[in-house]
Amino acid sequence: MTSAPLAARLTVPSGPLFFPVTAYAPGGEVDLDVYRTHVRRGVDAGAAAVFACCGTGEFHALTPEEFEACVRTAVEETAGRVPVLAGAGYGTALAVRYARIAEEAGADGLLAMPPYLVVAGQEGLLRHYREVAAATALPVVVYQRDNAVFTPETVVELARTDGIVGLKDGLGDLDLVQRFVSAVRTEVPDGDFLYFNGLPTAEQTQLAYRALGVTLYSSAVFCFAPEIALAFHRALREDDTATVHRLLDGFFRPFVELRAQGRGYAVALVKAGVRLRGLDVGEVRTPLQEPAEEHVKQLAQLIERGQALLDEEGGK
Known about the structure:
about 325 residues; alpha/beta; TIM Barrel; DapA-like; Aldolase_TIM; 4-hydroxy-tetrahydrodipicolinate synthase activity; lyase
């Protein structure tokens, strides 16, 4: 797939962007059967795209062999219904290796994760992502967060780079994102560069990102409560402010506050949510750890509250 078709498929999604968790069997190995079920359920529920083996999918914890198997399984299970993008990260050589593995496994695109550990200058970051983009024919979305933070000038150069089609923001600096959008619009006027809200529980900030013209966002909640995530996505699309506020106040804000109770909960709590909904995807791998039992109970109550909000909305 070339970058233009992927960009077109992502521009007007009918549902949230799905970042599946990676399923592990009781012995700790990847469980491809359960993973396949998880991916299938997400696509059937209305996901607009599958981002396999990214942050929520514990990219950091997977061997290259496990990564390849999961990406291939996601591609097989989606069967072309929606695009599949795969993570690629670490240093440049390994990021290139993962990119090529993803291409061989049939992925439609890449999410280029921040480089491992080092805090690099803008020139080094630009060279890194250009090498990843040049390594395959797959279109690349660059992920800004942690140690990969860009200037507007660098984002303009990324937008000019063949194969790089967008930027996912996991930093949350809206002033900086606005400058990205303005600079690219000015310097690359004929481009079709995409922007994604990639903050944890992106629904909480999506009203603000939407005001900047950023309509694409990842939804971790979709992993375990797709009906709630879809209702919010639909309300945004239809400018149903009352429903957006009701779900923010009654579900998403409390979920964000619960997520803040433990390190790594952006993944571990989501995985617990998937288990609560009846699919045993196993525990997180170290160095992440499982959420406290009390927090899992609170999550179960919160899911029930979200369901009640949907029931109230349906009864009106």
